Amino acid sequence: MSNIPSMTSSSTLSIHKSYQYDVFLSFRGEDTRKTFVDHLYAALERSGIHTYKDDERLHKGKKIDEELLKSIEDSKIFIIIFSLNYASSSWCLRELVKIMECQKSNDQQFAYPVFYDVEPSEVRKPNGAFAEALSIHKMEEATVKWREALDEAANLAGWELKDTANGYEAKVIKISVEQILLKLRSIHFSDDENLIGMHHRVQDVESSLQIDNLNVVRMIGIKGMGGSGKTTLARSIFDKVSTQFDGISFVENVREVSKVHGLQSLQKQIISDILHYQGYIVNSVHDGRKMLSERLCYKKVLVVLDDVDHISQLEALGGATKWFKLGSRIIITTRDEQLLKAHGVDLIHNVNLLTNVEAVTLFNRYAFGTVLLFKGYEKLSLEVVRYAAGLPLTIKVLDKRIPLKETLEKLELSYIALEDDYKEIFLDVACGLKDVFKEDAIRILESCGFHARIGLRVLEEKSLITSSSMFLHMHDHLQEMGRNIVRRLHPNDPRRHSRLFIHEEIEDVLANDLGTEATKSIIISEELRPEIIMRGLGKMKELSALHLHVDDMCYGSDYSWITEGWKFDQVSHYFPKALRYLCWRAYPYNYLPKTFQANNLVVLDMSLSGIVKLWKGEQKVLNKLRILDLGFTKLRTLDLGMAPNLERLILEACDDLIEIHVPNGCGKSLVYLNLDFCTRLRSLSFIKQLESVEVLDLNELSLWEFPDLIVDLRELKFSKNNIEELPSSIGNLHCLVSLDLSKNNIEELPSSIGNLHYLVSLDLSSCRDLKSLPESICSLQHLRHLNLKECAIEELPEDLGHLECLDWLNLSYTLIKHLPESFCMLKHLENLYLQHCDFIQNLPDDLGRLECLERLYLSFSKVREIPDSICKLKHLKQLLLEGCNQLKELPEKLGDLEALELLNVKGTCISHLPLSISLLKGLKICGFESKGQSIDTSIDDYQKHQILEEPSTKNHQKRGTTFFYLLVLLFCLQFKTNT
Q1: Given this model, what pLDDT does residue 2 score?
Q2: What string of DSSP letters covers 298-319?
Q3: β partners of residue 308
Q4: What's a Gene Ontology MF term here (predicted)?
Q5: How far apart are alpha carbons 650 and 657 in whole angstroms?
Q6: Biggest CA-to-CA distance, the chain
Q7: Angle at 771 (CA atoms; ends 723, 827), nearest 5 degrees
Q8: In 3D, which of 665, 666, 664, 633 has the Cα closest to residue 650?
Q9: Are residues 228 and 353 in contact, defined by beta-carbon separation less than 8 angstroms?
Q10: How far apart are CA 935 and CA 593, in angstroms?
Q11: Distance in angstroms (rounded) separating the CA atoms of residues 389 and 947
Q12: Fold classification of 14-182 (topology level)
């Protein structure tokens, strides 16, 4: 690090100094050592405040004055007890000078005077007995310094004994200790705020504690993966709010301590912490529970139980809310969400990993002692971000503060506690299913006999994976841990690994026919020649899952280049009969191998391949097959008799498919059928035989008539067909939840559409001949999503406001002239799109009644005025007015839109912005121009996710400059208008 450029203190934010003492007591021993100071010291120590008094902690053999000065520098708070004889001690006066120097030069050190038997005025301008004590030193050179220090100290806020608590020393000590605690907590919290990204996380948890509500006991959970910062977050909150409670206890490492010392030791700790007495004996966990329930109910307490991993720990340490007095708060940190649910906590907070910017900032703090990004070290910082992936513990490892082995051991604790099946699911995710489609992962796991949905939910509750609506995710280091578990038994012998996932090892094992029965699954993500794959599977008798997900390498292409030089024959083709899951997208051959028994096959995905028929010659019956995907293949016919228990069938874009045969008794289990773009399919009559189908995709079939469908259908995709009229029988599909009729030639909807009482989503976009909606549509009480974009609709039903659940409405490019009076009754509407509405000139005056509205897009419409009521929309985040060339001004109270983040006024006639807009600190303004100057930030820039931003201090500086410029501009415009 010797090449790191030096930076001045003005450009860096240094790490906070660590202190040895919380409090330093400065006093004249003869006056107060055995009375006030003794009681104060005892009270401070009882409260856990590490206090320096006298010479009790000095090391032998060192000069007292050097040690003393060092102790002052190493203390956060100074309590100066001014007594009659304080000034008679040159020792005390030298202490005082040093204390005042520290107080003035360091914003993390604070001094508080206690006027024991003198008044502040006597110290400030020494007189009386205090002046006599000081006069002893009139010949000393330092007298002037001492007088200045006395004057400064006497002007500080502190406690005057005779005027505080009527002079009762015990009460004065209690008050002073409480205030010292409060100040220490604020200092600690200030330090924690400088833990990157901590401030808003603390705020979120603190608000959920509802500390001001003294009528309840609340239990809050903090959940996250190992090393994610749960303990740090809990400690920050504890330090910040603990002074508001009668008793406090922070129980660290519950999991580890309970294993070594038993739960009784932790029960004793809580009792001792809160009651300030160490003599309690806890003979058993049962006795401990009894003692806790009997003694904690009289105090408002704050208890943190850190790193809990078993329900018995919660039952022993925080058994029930009735143990605690109203107003008490219990915070529990864990990796296992199910524990929190089982214990009935009030709210669970997930610890979010660091953002990229926060990760870089944290690394810079550890590596360079500053939060700023050093020029020339950007690449290093980016590499750290990618490796750490938001995990604070990893960044500490990179700084060599925590050994890597210790970090991996911490991460593996959650895995060790899993049941065997869940361990296998975890390893499968780590060895190939990370970042794949969630439903694909579920199918793979279920095909291998696992209860995948339950298992993945357990892993997520234990913070081992995360998932979005579509994908499975896992932290890189958890993935690394899982792969190490698979490899460490035979680190140099891939043949004996249960899962193969490293390309070079897979190629070596397959190409050299080194496979064994140990291998249960193979994930191939890079291109391998088909003959290598097929010939290398011969010895893998127990292989249950084979998954190739090379990026559509042969989509729509000629497959000959892959098979060149290798003659297809049924003997050399081999798939193990144990296979339960087979996914080979872009499989280059027309048939499956004749030798493949496939009796155990549950999932077969041969999409994007050359498949014409599954087997050449006699077809086999696959009784266990549940999912079949032959989308984008050369398939010509399909007989569902070969898979009588099929549940999902995907035949998307099989443009050679002419017939699907459904024998009697087959197809009864089918719930999903995708026939999208099967344009040559002769008839859909077979659909009526599929009684259980819930989701049906009939997009782009070039149909001229609406087919006769299954009554229990839940989702129908019928886009890009040629129908001009919907039959009234569509109202019989009373179970429909989602209906897509977009891009058809429909001229009107039948009134029976109002019978679709469970409909949530209706898409009519680009039905360019549709001119009106039936009034019956207003009876769809569950409708949330209505898309009318590019329809020829001129007006909406008057009762549209009765769609109580509607939260998304797109009217862009329609011919609508006005919104109906009932429109503002849509209380749950969050997104309203009115772009390119050439005939809407005015918005409803009571637009402010749309209290949930977050996005209002009016770009390129002819709207002339924005009603003042818009300023009542407290949740509005985006207001897009780009290209509204009839719009000249905005409401003056636009600054009331406290959530507004984006305002686009490009291409409008707006000449000035309302002054109140300066109140919106987080606002981005696009396209405002005045007097040749402009504020222009594109929407793309606003929405773009940046890997690495400027350091936070620089961000604030930039934002402050823009904000200052905006204020100046607004005032100039206002002055011009007034004059």
Answers
A1: 32
A2: GS-EEEEEEEE-SHHHHHHHS-
A3: 334
A4: ADP binding
A5: 12
A6: 118
A7: 110
A8: 633
A9: yes
A10: 66
A11: 12
A12: Rossmann fold (3.40.50)
Asked if the domains at 195-350 and 830-943+955-979 fall in one CATH topology, the answer is: no
Pick the CATH number of 195-350 from 3.50.50.60, 3.30.428.10, 3.40.50.300, 3.60.15.10: 3.40.50.300
Low-confidence residues of the chain, pLDDT below 50?
1-16, 57-63, 192-194, 367-377, 385, 389-390, 393-403, 552-566, 570-571, 930-979
Count the neighbouring beta carbons within 10 Å of the beta carbon of residue 50.
Answer: 15
The three-state secondary structure class of 857 is strand
Is 306 exposed, middle or buried (CB count within 10 Å of its CB: 0-12, 13-18, 19+)? Answer: buried
158, two tokens: 């502190």
Yes or no: say if 321 and 343 are a contact pair by the CB < 8 Å rule.
no
According to DSSP, residue 842 is labeled: B
For 551-560, the CB contacts below 8 A with 24+ separation are 552/585, 552/586, 552/608, 553/527, 553/586, 554/586, 554/588, 554/608, 554/609, 555/586, 555/608, 555/632, 556/632, 559/586, 559/588, 559/589, 559/610
Q: What's the pLDDT at 851?
A: 93
Q: Can you give the residue ranges of every domain in the chain? A: 14-182, 195-350, 356-408, 418-488, 492-580, 830-943+955-979
CB atoms within 10 A of CB 139: 6
Tokens of 383: 């590499």
Long-range contacts of 416-419 (CB under 8 A, 24+ apart): 417/309, 417/336, 417/462, 418/458, 418/459, 418/462, 418/464
Alpha carbon of 625 to those of 544, 611, 620, 694: distances in Å? 14, 17, 11, 19
In 387-500, beta strands by DSSP E? 466-467, 472-473, 499-500
Residue 554: the pLDDT is 42
Sign of the torsion angle spanned by Cα atoms 506, 510, 511, 513? positive
Task: Measure CA 630 to chain center.
Answer: 37
Cα-Cα-Cα-Cα torsion 170, 172, 178, 180, nearest 10 degrees, comes to -120
Q: Which CATH architecture has domain 418-488?
A: Orthogonal Bundle (1.10)
Closest by Cα among 629, 579, 624 to 605:
629
CB burial readout 532-564, b (16+ within 10 A) else e: bbbbbbebbeebbbbbbbeeeebeeeebeebee
For residue 439, which of 627, 702, 184, 695 has the smallest C-alpha distance?
Answer: 627
Torsion of CA 473, 476, 481, 487, to 10 degrees: 90
Query: CA dist 205 to 209, 231, 232, 335, Å?
Result: 6, 13, 13, 17
The two three-digit tokens of residue 235, written as one number: 């400690």
Q: 830-943+955-979: which CATH topology?
A: 3.80.10
Q: How far apart are CA 379 and CA 387, in angstroms?
A: 12
d(CA 398, CA 396) in angstroms, rounded, equals 5
H or E element, residue 904: strand 902-904
Distance, CA of 385 to CA of 355 (rounded, Å):
9
Other beta carbons less than 10 A from residue 617's beta carbon? 9
Could you tell me which of 637, 628, 586 has the C-alpha nearest to residue 610? 586
Note the pLDDT of residue 929.
58
pLDDT score recorded for residue 130: 84
C-alpha radius of gyration, the chain, whole number: 37
For residue 204, the one-letter residue type is D
